Structures are given as structure tokens and as C-alpha cells.
Amino acid sequence: MICPRCDTDKVDVMVQSPVGHVWEMYLCHTCAYTWRSTETPDKTDPARYNPHFKIKAGEIGQMLVIPPIVPLA
Amino acid sequence: MAQALPKTEVPQAYMDLRAFLAVLEAEGQLVRVKEEVDPEEIGAAGRASADLPNGPAVMFEKVRGYRNPVVTNVHGSWANHALMMGMPRDTPTKAQFLELSRRWDLYPVPPERVEDAPFKQNFVDRDINLFDIISLYRINTYDAGCFLSKACIVSADPEDPKSYAKTNLGTYRMQVKGKDRLGIQALPFHDLGLQLAKAEALNRPVPLAICLGCDPITTFMASTPIRYDQNEYDYVGALNNGVPMRITKAPTLDLEVPAGCEICIEGYIEPRVREVEGPFGEFPGSYSGARLQAVVRVTSISYRDNPIFENLYLGIPWSEIDYLMALNTSVPLYKMLKETFPEVEAVNAMYTHGIGVIVSTKVRFGGFGKAVAMRLLSTPHGMAYSKIIIIVDEFVDPFNLAQVMWAMTTRVDPDKDVSIIKNCPGMPLDPSSNPPGMHNKMIIDATTPKAPEIVSRETELLTPPAGTAKWAAIIAGLVRQARD
């Protein structure tokens, strides 16, 4: 399985629906995106995910750190 | 110590969310969806309800694949806001502001400590699975996952963990990243951000109690800016018109939490760890970016039988969050200004959590309005949040935008009355904050000029002609006759 947002394959089933087997949710270990199997393709399909919200795995290390980590005392 | 209660007709104080929901339902301000819904429909319903005039709270009794109900838009109208305060549902906004301001001065009303609490009915500390208990859902389309948007989070000062005064109750967005893992946004100027910095300097975790579904005033207070060394619980009692709230010891942590909550999640912020968090559709009406933010490990969950998950929709204003942080942003700013400038009459900081603020004040001498604005910009909340400050005369109602626009169009000389103050602290979620966390501020002084400022023309205000009140009654009568 491929993460719809960052297109990497480090994806696991995060949880199955507590009642019935009506959906499961997935977690991307690269970008922490999660999605549900029953959601629409704009949230689940890498090819149809809004390009504006895509993340390249290589960009993650450059993201702003909030709040900044203070030096050790 | 608590002051004696004034005699008023507002005795209502809710000890938990369920008591408030019962009143909302009786007043026609809560509707129930009994049919099963898909989890991701709940955000849309929150948007839709907030768009209605006096939109109700919406309770979803059955959410597909989950065990427990969800309620949204609980604070999402002026009617619900008034009922939260035990006032008639049609109370005007300014009257709610004045009542809130009066109750504010009852502070402190210390809480009552109780042993037992409904949320202690059930406890889990092994094989933790948030989804077993909480019916989690994505709020807006490009949110990075399911979020807790209305959690009341309790944390202590790492250097003074026994201090009741420094214990913080705040609302911070939380992204669900696993069955027992959450992301949290603690900005540097937030109380939790301050505590996190102290703990991380010592490489220690920050224990947290994350309380969901509290009574409405507690949730309201969790998003109210007050001083770091003031405890929010003492304010809840004040805003409950002098009725103390109930708190209880958290099941495993050395923290005291609201006894009325539906769900209490315990855990800790992992020190010196950051992970991708967001985007999240935020209160300025746009998505935040994805950033590296702090992470919470969940260690236990306690909950009432059939726990109700209370969460809010937030989007382009107005949505539920705008009601939740309208008057509780306005009143503290009003009180802080009033301490230094008793001339201040009222503060309307309802626009995007106080990014836009309108202050009405008497003017003692030239430049006074600008000085009041500078004071606002040096308050803890105004410093980072407030960006556009409009100062109007004391006879202008800052909650009446037609009057405010009148003052702007007839009092402002843009050359001298508009001031830009560059390179100030800013609110990073404001998409115009550049770089995120920095603001240029704008002050618009729309007060009437006074000496020694050069007063080029005297301004004589129009007053209603004699007989206006009489004619108002006559015309209203004729309108009624015409309708009948």
C-alpha cells in the first residue's frame, strides 16, 4: 500500500472498526497521514490526492520545528 | 476567597456536559441524528449547523463502526452561548459580554474537590485503543487525520509541579497518530509551550490529562487567555456565577481534573521529540502547514459508560470555534486594558480569536486612542494574536459594526490615524504572518481628535430629534397593524 500523501510504502493498518468489520484505518510511518478505507478517493488515492497537500519525504527534515527544542540545561 | 453571590436570575451551573445537553434539547438547541452516519459526515454537519441562524448542537447516536455517540456544535450559536451562562436564549451579544464581565470579577471561586467522578466508571491501561472508546473522525478534507479539536488539557509546571496556581487547563489541537499516540500543538507563547520548554531543558516528559466532554464553562475557560499563575478552575466557578466546579484526582497522574468530563486520557509529551503534524483546518479559515510538532504517548483512558465524544467543527468564520473564543477573548483583554486605562468602555475581540480587535474608550487628550492600542499590543494575548486594532470613541458600540464603520469613515485621516508597527510577535496560524510567528501590526485610531492634537474642525454630533421615541412606538404599532 502507498501513502496517498507522501507516496511512500511504510504504511500499516492502524486500527479496524471496533464494531463489525466495516472499515479500517491506515497510518503512514513517514508523514503520519492517516486515512479510512471508506473515505473518498481524494483522501485515499495517491493519484487523486490534492497536489497542494502532497509531501515529499525529503522535505520533512526541513519543516519548521514548533516549538523549537531548547538546549539542555 | 469567593465573594458573596449577587442576587440575579441566573442560577444555572452545569456540573457536566450531559446536564447542559439536556437543557439545550429542552430549548430546541440540540437535535439528534438517530440513523447511523459515516464518521466523516460529522464535520459537514458541524459546518452546516454553524451556518444556520442560532444553529443547534447535533448529537450523532450511531457512528458507523464505532460504539459511542458524538456531539458537535455544542457552543455553536449565541443562543447556546447564552444558555451556557444560564441566560435566556435570545440574550443580545453585548448583554452576554457585560454579564460575563461582571462574573469575571467574582474570581477566584475555588473548586470543590471530590473523590468520585462518573468518568472513573471504566479504566484501561493495557492494549490501549483510543478508537475503542472515542468515535474519531476527520473534520476537514485535508486534515492529516482525525483530530481532537475541543480537548481540555491539564498540565503542571515542571519546575513547580505541586503548584495549583501554575497548573494549566488549555485547549490545544491533537492529531490522532495511532491507537495510543497523539500529536499536539504547543506554541511557544502558550502556557503549555512554556511548560514544555522547561521540561525539555531537563529532558523530562510533560504528564498530561486530556479531558473530553467537560461541562460547557470548563471548555469555554480552557480556551480563555489568562495569566500563567492563575488557575482556570477558579475562573470556572466565577463564570458559573459563584458556583464552584468539581475537580478530582486523575486516576494515575498527580494532576487534578474536571470531575464532570466524559473521558480522561492520561499520558505524557515525549521530551525532545518532534514528528510531522498537520495540516489542520484552523480557526483563521485556512489550513495550517505541516510542521514538526510534539508527540504524546497515552498511558491510560478512563471514561463514563457510553461516553459522548464532544468535538467541534472549525472553518471560515463563523463556526463553532468562533463562539467558543469570542467573549472569553474580549473580556480578559477588556479587564487588562481597564486596569491601566479606566477610560476603556468595551472590547470586541471576536474576530479570529482577537487578531482583529475593536476598543471603545473615552479620550482624554490627543494620541490617547493610540496609547490604548499600544497597551493592548503589550498584553500577553494581544502581543501575539492582535494585528488590526481599531479604537473608537466611548459612544460607539464596538459590537455594532455599522457604528464602527461609521467611526472609521468619519474620524480617520489615513495619513495620521493609521499606524503600522513592524516586526512584532505574531500568530503563526494567520496565513499573513510572515515568517510564521511574526506580525506587522496596524492601529486605526477612529476616535475624535482632541488637543494638543490639531483639531481642524469641531464635530457636533447629531442627536435624535425630540419625539423620536414617541414616533418609534407609533411606527411599530402601524407595522403591527399592517401585518395583522
Structure description:
The complex is a heterodimer of chains A (73) and B (484). Helices cover 5% and strands 19% of the residues of chain A. By secondary structure, chain A is mainly β. Chain A has a three-stranded antiparallel beta sheet, with no helix packed on it. The longest helix of chain A is centred in the middle third of the chain and has 4 residues, at 41-44. With 484 residues, chain B is an alpha+beta fold. Chain B is 27% helix and 23% strand. Chain B is built from 15 helices and 22 strands. In chain B, strand 9 (174-178) and strand 10 form a beta hairpin. The termini of chain B are far apart. Classes of the chains: A mainly beta (73), B alpha+beta (484).
Provide a concise account of the structure shown.
The complex is a heterodimer of chains A (73) and B (484). Chain A has 73 residues and is mainly beta.
Descriptors:
heterodimer, A: 73 residues, mainly beta, 1 helix, 5% helix, 19% strand, B: 484 residues, alpha+beta, ten-stranded antiparallel β-sheet, five-stranded mixed β-sheet, 27% helix, globular, disordered N terminus
Task: Output the number of helix runs of chain B.
Answer: 15
Overall helicity of chain A: under 10%
Assembly state of the chains shown: heterodimer
Largest sheet of chain A: 3 strands, antiparallel
Apparent shape of chain B: globular
Mean pLDDT of chain A: 97
Q: What class would the helix/strand composition of chain B place it in? A: alpha+beta
Write out the strand line-up for the largest beta sheet of chain A, numbering strands in chain order: 1-2-3
Radius of gyration of chain A: 15 Å
Number of E-type strands of chain A: 3
